[in-house]
Amino acid sequence: MALAENQKPRVLVLFGGESGEHGISCATAAAVVEAINPERYEVVTVGITAQGQWVPLDFSSEQFQIREGKVASVPPAKRQLFLAPGTGKAISLPTQLGSEFSLADLGTFDVVFPLLHGPFGEDGTVQGLLEMMHLPYVGCGVLASAAAMDKPTTKVLLHQAGLPAGKWETVNAAQWQQDRFSVLKRLAPLGMPVFVKPARAGSSLGISKVNSADALEEAIERAQQIDPKVIVEAELTGLEVECAVLQGRDGRVRTSEPGRIAMRSDVDFYDYNTKYFAEDSVALEIPAQIPAHLASQVRTFAAQAFEALGCEGLARVDFFVDTAKDQVVINEVNTMPGFTPFSMYPKLWEYMGVDYSQLMEELISLALARPVGLR
């Protein structure tokens, strides 16, 4: 839809969601909404409750920031939003249908910024919905979002592209219920320690570092509380390094200098609490103090991983860099990296000369220029 002269593009910012990363999504939205230039865009904020309702909100960044080690949540509301398929038109109606039933026309949106992390948001589900609404959106499409959220699928695609992604095994619920002895036997060649993770979750939720075979069953069952599909990975050695990827309108991808997650010696691994609530336990080292040839390899692999998964717009590619072995291995690809005050992605681009507001501008303008549907 063409914009009228002097009309600002309407940006629908979606946040919250049904995953365990609901609160982190709220914190991301708190930062992003502040950074979008109100002179350039009209921002409409819609929160998705933990139960899945889409509710229009009068947004306050302070309300949704991480405070005193606690995350916020999208509150229940009296009205909820619905999108009309094929038109991008939005309406709201009461959450409780009664005698005072009324519809409200919220108009149309020009672009959606889905600040959703984890399942039911970052995994291709919302992206597919927005495609059906004929609404442009920031970030990766359906396939790349789904593939990157599913860690075993990510590794298959990376290996197929000739990229290093470590050793792993997948454990699905049926296998575990029917013959866990065979599953444990299949996992044995990975050695110890291993990392047990929900296959389709982010923010380090449900991850366990397992140092002995005796603790493996418990770790798998803990991960299954978040996702019945589990991935077990052989330990990767070295420094945890991340690289930000940003796509231009011409399709070319740019990569940032790598940054390093520097943890205190008494921190075992980069888990959920360390990532978001333990400011004194970690520091972001930008650029990462690694040899130049390994930094170059990180950037090359990041761009290749972005293309191998069919990503669009943005992604953050995480690595382990072992300087002793002169080795770079891809750990994960994140299609909607966090934008909290502690997040690596915006800080990497800030180091590259793209400040937070400029980054928002690039992402939104790219989404506006990109067609929906097959491309």
From the structure above, extract its key features:
4-stranded mixed β-sheet; 30% helix; D-amino Acid Aminotransferase, Chain A, domain 1; 375 residues; Dna Ligase, domain 1; Rossmann fold; alpha+beta; 6-stranded antiparallel β-sheet; 3 domains
Largest sheet report = 6 strands, antiparallel
CATH class call of the largest domain: Alpha Beta
Number of domains: 3
Please state the average pLDDT score: 90
Could you tell me the strand content as a percent range?
15-25%
SSE sequence, one letter per element:
EHEEHEEEEHHHEHHEEHEEEEHEHEEHH
Query: Low-confidence parts, pLDDT < 50 over ≥5 residues?
Result: none
What does this structure look like?
The chain has 375 residues and is of the alpha+beta class. It has 3 domains: 129 residues, Rossmann fold; 149 residues, ATP-grasp fold, B domain (D-amino Acid Aminotransferase, Chain A, domain 1); 67 residues, Dna Ligase, domain 1 (2-Layer Sandwich), CATH 3.30.1490. The protein is 30% helix and 25% strand. It is built from 12 helices and 17 strands. The strands form 4 sheets. Strands 12, 13, 14, 15, 16 and 17 form a 6-stranded antiparallel beta sheet that branches. Strands 3-2-1-7 form a 4-stranded mixed beta sheet, sandwiched between helices. A 4-stranded antiparallel beta sheet has the order 8-11-9-10, with helices on both faces.
Note the topology:
Layout: E1 10-16, H1 22-35, E2 42-48, E3 54-56, H2 61-64, E4 79-83, E5 89-94, E6 104-108, E7 111-115, H3 125-133, H4 142-149, H5 151-160, E8 168-171, H6 173-178, H7 180-187, E9 194-198, E10 208-210, H8 216-224, E11 230-234, E12 239-247, E13 253-255, E14 259-263, H9 272-277, E15 282-285, H10 292-308, E16 314-322, E17 327-334, H11 344-351, H12 356-369
Parallel strand pairs: 1-2, 1-7
Antiparallel strand pairs: 2-3, 4-5, 5-6, 8-11, 9-10, 9-11, 12-13, 12-14, 12-16, 14-15, 16-17
